[in-house]
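Re: the 417-residue chain
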Amino acid sequence: MNKIIVRVFIQKIKNYCWHLPKSLFFNLLYGFPSRKLVLIGVTGTDGKTTTVSLIHRCLIEAGINAGVISTLGAKIGNQEIKTGLHTTSPDPAVTQKIFSQMVDSGITHVVVEVTAHAIDQFRYFGCHFQVAGITNVTHEHLDDFLNIQSYTLTKSKLLEESDFSILNRDDSSFASISPHLRQPLTTYSIDQPSDYQAKNVKISANKITFKVNDQLFTTDSVYHHQIYNILLAHAILSQLKIDSHVLRNVIKLFPEIKGRREEVKNDLQIKCIIDFAHTPAALETTLKSLQQNTPGKLIVIFGATGGRDQSKRPLMGKVVSEVADIAIITADDTRNEKVEKINQQIINGITQKNKRFIYHNIPNRQDAFDLAVKLSNSGDTIVACGKGHETTILHGKTEYPWSEIEAFRTAFRQKQS
């Protein structure tokens, strides 16, 4: 705990003495371009990228010239701009340049994925958000924040400084954040009463239906948590005066978002999914939703990043052992740590509540894919978690080329041969 206090203290000094002046400099250099844009911010631990992508797609469908900055990169019209490896909220030197390019391209609205680190480090200093919403707050980054309360309140700063803020009434963060915001609040939920509450939720093998204020929503994305992403998008779009029929049309065939529940087709009759889930809560949500539609075994390939919050690793092991049938624990971005140590910390959290659960410790990630496919049969689901859309894997200080899709395809070829 003392190490965390020292680290946070040093980071605060760096934030005010380096990050804040740097952000101000690049705002001045590019002439505060964000002032010419309608900024829409989404923060939270899980679900940000999906929600941001969904809002952006709806704005485009509504005829608005909109841009986006997210974990997947930035987009201006059909132009895709890389913002850096393993990056969600870019450095202000990158962000302000992109905002300037957006203004020059006639963009009027920008949907932005905003992390707690970005807020803490003033990466969006000088940027005023017209509307901002939060997905949820779960266990993450507790190596960089004193505790979950500090992490939550950091995220709340985005909402405090926005014209309109939208909260998840079902999430534990609501009680911590709501007292700091202007009243009345806009809220969304499934369980608790709210402004945008999903009612009469029905989930089948190929669709979800629910009503919000007597309007029927239908989507082919059969994951329960997707309802929350849709609700937040609905609340934000309503605040922007976008007719709800746009969102309802878009979600009928839910847009494919790279690395988020992305399916890899094959001839083996095995459902193979790539997902970015890398927190205990995201793993639990992902696995439980897949479990409901898996007639056979549920197999998960996952690891934990090195040089990051170690306290979540046993929690990830616990969640997986209680939901999945088979886990293959493998390398993620190991950075400066040994994969054997990381994997053992995950294994330490495994419980025996699920009697059918077994696990394999396979440090090489391609070997993990090969084994998962080898162990699978028709009707099984394999989900590879943690890497998602990323195109490299980081070991030590070296970025090696990596693709979850190609890892699956290699495993398919091996099994077929």
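DSSP finds 13 helices and 19 strands in the chain.
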